[in-house]
Design brief:
By secondary structure, this protein is an alpha+beta fold. The chain has helices spanning 34-49, 51-66, 77-85, and strands at residues 2-5, 11-14, 18-21, 25-26, 90-91. It has a single domain, classed as Ribokinase (UDP-N-acetylmuramoyl-L-alanine:D-glutamate ligase, 3-Layer(aba) Sandwich). It has three helices and five strands, in the order E-E-E-E-H-H-H-E. Helix 1 runs antiparallel to helix 2 (51-66) and helix 2 (51-66) crosses helix 3 (77-85).
Length: 93
């Protein structure tokens, strides 16, 4: 699997086919660590449900990381699941 993040355009992955991850919009407080958060979210989603889920979890994790002022994101799974379900259209802390 090859994964590329596209910033405000979301993400894209190539495996058996091409997958597209939707973008999430958040208020940027601190962008440091967003790529690491995306990677962690992608791996979680990929291992649980496959490539598309990986892109969705990765995007949600990165968007939530943008809202955390510290470099260590304190984000729980409920926040990620709420974002994935569309409970919040935009992430604001």
């Amino acid at each position: 699997v090859v994964v590329i993040t596209l910033g405000e355009e979301g993400s894209i992955a190539k495996s058996d086919k091409i997958y597209r991850g939707r973008p999430y919009h958040s208020t940027e407080v601190n962008r440091l660590g967003a790529g690491d958060a995306f990677a962690a979210g992608f791996l979680y989603g990929y291992l649980k449900k496959g490539v598309q889920a990986g892109l969705e979890y990765g995007g949600a994790m990165a968007a939530l990381k943008f809202t955390v002022p510290l470099n260590i994101p304190v984000i729980d799974k409920e926040e990620i699941d709420d974002l994935l379900k569309g409970v919040r259209g935009e992430v604001i802390r």
